[in-house]
User: Fold this.
Amino acid sequence: PLASSGSVEMSGIALAPFWEYLQHEYDAELTGDARLGLGFDYVLDSSDAKLDFSLQRGRALLTGLDVARRSSGESLLALPRTSADGIEFDLGRNMLDIGSVELAEPRVAVRRLEDGAIDLVAALTPTGAMQEATEATAGATDATAQGGAGDAAAPAVAIQLGALRIDGGRVAFEDRAAPRPVQLALQDIALAVTDYRSTDGHRADVSLQAAAAAGGTLAVSGAVQGIPLDVGLDVNIDGLSLVPALPYAAEAMNLE
Assistant:
């Protein structure tokens, strides 16, 4: 039987060489010096009939990730520094526990193109052989679900997240399909999600503060329950300018 335990530590792994194997399937390219660091302790034991694997003291650090749309060169996503700590996984209990995830100054740019497509989604959607494989897998899954009622589905991994924090984020949206181009942006985003669990009925605390690029602020606080969905949030909007969104009403209301 196979049995192993120990520690793994890696740092500064360049992601560009790995992306070369996948880039032909996506309209996206890595434009920054993305590097990944990982560390964890592990225990692997196959002496029993059921494989036992656990991971403790996991941590990860991703730096310099910049993603652009290859066909246009326009920036889509930038993650200067993303870290995760306190990662634990237990295969026997089917549980993933993450102590914290922190994103420093992330930037996301989303554009609705003239044909109605969202460029971020289109760029990160696989095409060609990978898309065909995805569809074939989905078809096989549907067939199994319809004809194999006696086969129990694998239980979902139970996920716990102590805290998710975003500091200094920016999200920009441009609508090129509107009667006149629309540009909206939220900046100085501070988001905190605490005590998230995927179990039914559990509520996670949420706090969000952001400033609109055109002026005004947004503040959101409260709790969110995923299953079943239940949202209880207090929303405070102060001095938010509606001018950037006027093109949506231009044709119907003749606004300038």
